[in-house]
From TrEMBL:
InterPro entries: DXP_reductoisomerase, DXP_reductoisomerase_C, DXP_reductoisomerase_N, DXPR_C, DXPR_C_sf, NAD(P)-bd_dom_sf. Mn(2+) binds at D147, E149, E218. Belongs to the DXR family. Its EC number is 1.1.1.267. 1-deoxy-D-xylulose 5-phosphate binds at K122, S148, E149, S173, H196, S209, N214, K215, E218. The gene is dxr. Catalyzes the NADPH-dependent rearrangement and reduction of 1-deoxy-D-xylulose-5-phosphate (DXP) to 2-C-methyl-D-erythritol 4-phosphate (MEP). Its cofactor is Mg(2+); Mn(2+). Keywords: Isomerase, Isoprene biosynthesis, Magnesium, Manganese, Metal-binding, NADP, Oxidoreductase. The keyword Chloroplast does not apply. This is 1-deoxy-D-xylulose 5-phosphate reductoisomerase. GO terms for molecular function: 1-deoxy-D-xylulose-5-phosphate reductoisomerase activity; isomerase activity; manganese ion binding; NADPH binding. Pfam families: DXP_redisom_C, DXP_reductoisom, DXPR_C. Residues 258-374 form the DXP reductoisomerase C-terminal domain.
Length: 379
């Protein structure tokens, strides 16, 4: 029986994690749940999964739900609430599924407390990968990837020697606008951008897929998770999202992981590793899929991907600034404050004005995050 806490239980990954938990009641129980503002769904989850501890984004929200909580459930709020759910209680496993670098301090606190992490929240590794991976190494904590591409690579590498890896390749669907030219991007709407061809996900990551920022964040995430230099990390367009990623070894063998696009599979594998359990996902029939197609990545079509990789190579706070600027730019696009193409322009402008600091500590990371957000908000 694994005792699990979830940061972001009301989101796309959070709810699918609870689907997995519900399917295997003899394997998992819930210790803590942290939500943002969706208190109605959180209360439903409390009734069904009986956590001992919950948290919401603010004190006002906590005051709203306090009378409706069963006696004995501990209630927290704000950033401190995230830390309490991540590192308090007696869970032995944390799923980090909040959106954005808001997950950083709580993830570090959970690692400090010796908890294994199922990592969906890629922004945490992008903003401070060196701090997270170094602390996990010192504490002997496992970082188990939930992101589909990283789960795929993790599964392909099972038992392999890192020196035998020639390269890893992350596949990319191309996002909502993959068949549009750059000129055609000018008038696209929020609704268009939120229509991902293969995956049903939260709003922010769906926009990131359309700009290809998601793949940029994933290249940086892969660098930290697998300890590989950027030169050994490739990206390939694969519109069907059936091959979730692959590894090429020095003897020229390629091992890939395949399946229908369903996040419950990588979520469950991160929870059950190194074992596997039955899954609700529909089995893949290659005969029905018929044809899998691939295209070389066009970096001129997706300049934000190129910029993300440059930031990864620059290191230090460059990726922190990139991530923070992107979080703000995407939020502005979703509020209809800026057009889609302005997201890329904001990223470029923020990075032009950013002087990276190498080996930043947590305070420097947080200061850089704050400054990049402020600039991205004013551009
Ligand atoms: N969705 C997917 O298929 C995939 C997602 N990921 C990554 O997983 C992470 C989560 O993505 P996704 O599930 O799509 O996102 P969603 O937007 O669907 O969910 C985000 C969750 O975080 C909560 N939240 C947001 N802000 C706060 C806060 N300040 N304090 C506490 N909770 C907060 C939300 O609460 P509420 O709704 O109550 O406000 C919600 O539960 C992202 O990093 C994403 O890149 C990676 C691979 C695939
Ligand atoms: C499901 C998942 O892992 C997402 O990160 C997915 O990869 C998004 O798809 P693209 O970024 O390839 O469009
Ligand atoms: Mn992914």
């Amino acid at each position: 029986m694994k005792k699990i806490s979830i940061l972001g239980s009301t989101g796309s990954i959070g709810t699918q994690t609870l689907d997995v938990v519900a399917m295997h009641p003899d394997s998992f129980e819930i210790d803590g749940l942290a939500a943002g503002g969706n208190t109605a769904l959180l209360l439903e989850q409390v009734r069904r999964f009986k956590p001992r501890r919950v948290s919401v984004a603010s004190l006002e929200l906590a005051d709203d739900i306090r009378p409706q909580l069963p006696a004995g459930v501990e209630l927290y709020s704000g950033d401190e609430g995230l830390v309490q759910i991540a590192a308090g209680g007696d869970a032995d496993y944390l799923v980090t599924a909040v959106m954005g670098s808001v997950g950083l301090r709580s993830t570090l606190a959970a690692i400090e407390a010796g908890r294994d992490i199922g990592l969906a929240n890629k922004e945490t590794l992008v903003t401070a990968g060196h701090l997270v991976t170094e602390l996990a190494r010192r504490k002997g904590v496992n970082l188990l990837p939930i992101d589909s591409e990283h789960s795929a690579i993790f599964q392909c590498l099972n038992g392999e020697n890192v020196e035998d890896i020639a390269s890893i390749t992350l596949t990319a669907s191309g996002g909502s606008f993959r068949d549009l030219t750059r000129e055609q991007l000018q008038g696209v709407t929020v609704e268009d951008a939120l229509r991902h061809p293969n995956w049903a996900m939260g709003a922010k990551i769906t926009i990131d897929s359309a700009t290809m920022v998601n793949k940029g964040l994933e290249v940086i995430e892969a660098h930290w998770l697998f300890g590989l230099p950027y030169e050994q990390i490739n990206v390939l367009l694969h519109p069907e999202s059936i091959i979730h990623s692959f590894v090429e070894f020095r003897d020229s063998s390629i091992i890939a992981q395949l399946g229908n696009p369903d996040m419950r599979v990588p979520i469950q594998y991160a929870l059950t590793y190194p074992r596997r359990l039955e899954s609700p996902a529909q089995r893949l029939s290659l005969a029905q899929a018929g044809r899998l197609t691939f295209r070389e990545m066009d970096f001129a079509r997706y300049p934000a991907l190129k910029l993300a990789i440059e930031c990864g190579k620059a290191g230090g706070t460059a990726t922190t600034a990139f991530n923070a600027a992107n979080e703000v730019a995407v939020a502005r696009f979703l509020r209809r404050d800026i057009p889609f193409v302005r997201i890329e322009e904001i990223l470029e402008k923020v990075l032009e004005r950013h002087t990276p600091e190498s080996h930043p500590d947590l305070e420097q990371i947080e200061e850089c995050d704050r400054a990049a957000r402020e600039l991205a908000q004013t551009l």
